Structure formats: C-alpha cells, structure tokens
Automatic annotation (TrEMBL):
Record-level Gene Ontology MF annotations: monooxygenase activity
Taxonomic superkingdom: Bacteria
InterPro entries on file: ABM_dom, Dimeric_a/b-barrel
One Pfam match: ABM
Keywords: Monooxygenase, Oxidoreductase
Protein name (Swiss-Prot/TrEMBL): Antibiotic biosynthesis monooxygenase
Domain ABM: 5-103
C-alpha cells in the first residue's frame, strides 16, 4: 500500500506581489527538506507556453510526503502556520487566495497487501 501524500498548494498573489510571494515560499523550502518524510517540496511559478494554455493560480507548491501523518505534522510546524497567518490571513498579507489539496496515487479499490499479516514491516 502506498502511503505517500501528494500536495498541490496554489497561490494567487495580490496584484504586484508575485515576486514577494514567490520568494517567501522559496524561503520555506530549506527547512521542509530537513524533514525526514519530505520526499519532494518545490515551489514553481507559471510560465507562458503554447502547449500548456490552462489557467491556474500563478504560484504552485508541489509536495510529496512519505505519509499522511508526516504531511499533517509539517502543516503544524510554527514556520508554516506563521507563513499562512502573515501572508494569507492577515489583511495586509501578500496573498489574495490559496488552494491546498492532497492526493493519493492509490485507486479507490486497490487491494493493498497486509504487510502486518505477512509478518513484514514497511520500510
């Protein structure tokens, strides 16, 4: 059974604040990479491309966590809570809106093997 959690966190900066938001989000990367269960944590910004004309918020975090508990613990870190309080929740923050979603790579009907019943442990 895959326990990985995939998080897509999209951000809509207030007008003229795109660079400030991108840099603030980049500032979160080093400490997230220190978390043992962080498999991938990269902030990206949308660019023009003739083969990808979709619409989205212009700044997106792509995250992969080893499991749900690790992701939820990450979300409770002081640095993360303070980021959202300062940049999104505060009236004078740089972010107009954010959309954070988590995903799994497992089909709903996946018949995951029970490693405990087999006497095996997950890595």
């Amino acid at each position: 059974m895959s326990q990985k959690i995939y998080c897509i966190a999209s951000f809509k900066p207030k007008p003229g604040r795109e660079d400030a938001v991108f840099r603030a989000l980049q500032g979160l990367e080093p400490n997230a990479h220190r978390e043992d269960a962080c498999l991938h944590y990269t902030v990206t910004r949308q660019i023009d491309n003739p083969f990808a004309q979709g619409t989205s918020y212009p700044i997106v975090f792509h995250e992969v966590w080893a499991n749900r508990a690790a992701f939820e613990a990450h979300c409770q870190r002081r640095e993360i809570r303070e980021f959202f309080a300062t940049h999104l929740e505060a009236e004078d923050g740089d972010i107009e809106d954010a959309n954070v979603c988590v995903y799994t790579d497992e089909p709903a009907d996946f018949d995951a093997p029970d490693l405990g019943a087999a006497g095996l442990k997950e890595p």
